[in-house]
Give the backbone structure.
Amino acid sequence: MIPIVVSIVAISTLITLWVRSRKGRLPYPPGPPAEPLLGHLRALPKSYDEGAYREMANKYGGIIYLDVLGKSIVILNSEKIANELLDKRSAIYSDRPSLPFHEMTGLSNTLTLLPYGNNFLKTRKLLQDQLTRKKCTLFNDIQLAQRSILLQNLLLTPENFGFHTKRFVTAVVLEIAYGRKVVADDDPFLVNAEVLDKLIAETGTAGLVILDFLPFLKYLPPWVPGAWYSKFAQRARPIIEAVKDYGIAVVQHDVASGKAQASFSSLHLEELDSEKRNSKEELDRLKWTAFTLYSAGAETTWSALETFFLAMVLHPDAQREIDQVIGHGQLPGFEDQDNLPYLNSVVQEVVRWCPVIPLGMPHRVMQDDVYEGMLIPKGSMVLGNLRVMLTNEEVYHDPFTFVPERFLPKPDGHGEPPPNVAFGFGRRVCPGRWLAQSELWIAIASILSMFDIKPIQNDKGEDILPLPEFHNSITSHPKPFQCRVLPRSYKTKTVIEQL
Ligand code: HEM
């Protein structure tokens, strides 16, 4: 086995060197020294190791080039360069790299990982058209109903705030996708979503798993020792397929029995029927798109809500404005949004302080490109290091501290730019960003108006502050921490009980 691996690595390196020698003399962007044959295999952290990526950024600057076993990787640490390439040159930077491991699991069928092309464009339109800023207001009632359940759950078992917030975001996207109201904790949709999240968490950072560099490993049969990827895919694929099929099957049943609540799936099923486009291909696209709504939409928004709880324990004092504008003991509604600039900044700061997807999703450049005299070869995987961009000291003052007022205009705040890059770039920018922001806003505004979030205390009554540490995989989450979630007064407790 080892001689085969070595020969394949050697041949691919020789081919790369040959191709490179024929490409003229333009230099690649800077990067650490490469090792013979392996290139930067050992220099590239395979999961998001924040320290290692930051060190590389400090040493080599806004754009870095790595060569891992003949594959070109470009890491962008500067927002300016990322906007220049991934936004302005989006026509050639909107592909996704081929991801053999995700292909084996079936997850490469989700919009998030689809290669650029016809299927991508059709799928993206299907989802994007329903999630425009304006259309997202149609989901406000769903969010408000789930907000009531969230607040009641927090009152009953505040120590389970992580579970309750996850349930909130999942229930919202499930209802949008399939029109099913999640009422009980053992709802099959909720159970499926949980199973799926666990599987996705195991798949690692797309583009950086070893199989992405040594795709022939996928041919190892599951019984060969060390063939973890084949074994995982054999277990995961049927589950993923079943979860994807289940949602649409339920909606088809609801539509047939006249019980369907209008949803992303029911509307599109009707459209397919009326236009007689109900082909397997169209139905499959619809199944994967509905599935993408919650595979991409729940875990991400949940991560931001967990970060919010951590930020409130460490940096309280976000409630004054709510009390002044809507009054103590009153529940905010979406109509209050324009009158609560500080609260809006809290939501932005949550997204900036700990970007949910620290390395973004990998883009792939579809043709050779040149940036400031440096060659970015066709096929390079291009990663935006969002965490480094959003903690750039030249843009954000005191970037590691949670400071919502940084976004308020001067003189009340620092007039710093909004953290738009947290949602990605160009034609692949997050289509769920408006939905995510409205979900975060209503949850954060409601929790702050009804609860205090405080540190736990030791026997002497002294506060024990959690460390702001994050577990980073494809998404980033605060490491487990405890806090006290207390109703702010008898009045707020009564308001929640009466919801
Ligand atoms: C705080 C919450 C969220 C954050 C920070 C976030 C962030 C991101 C980022 C960074 C990307 C990669 C963009 C790129 O490739 O440049 C992305 C893609 C995506 N997001 Fe979000 N997202 C959030 C919530 C949501 C929600 C609620 C949905 C859907 C309901 C959603 C659906 C998607 C999809 C489908 C993609 C793939 C788009 C494509 O490849 O064309 N996201 N998101």
User: Anything to note?
Assistant: The chain has a mean pLDDT of 91. The first strand starts at residue 63 and ends at 68. The CA atoms of residues 191 and 408 lie 41 Å apart. DSSP finds 18 helices and twelve strands in the chain.
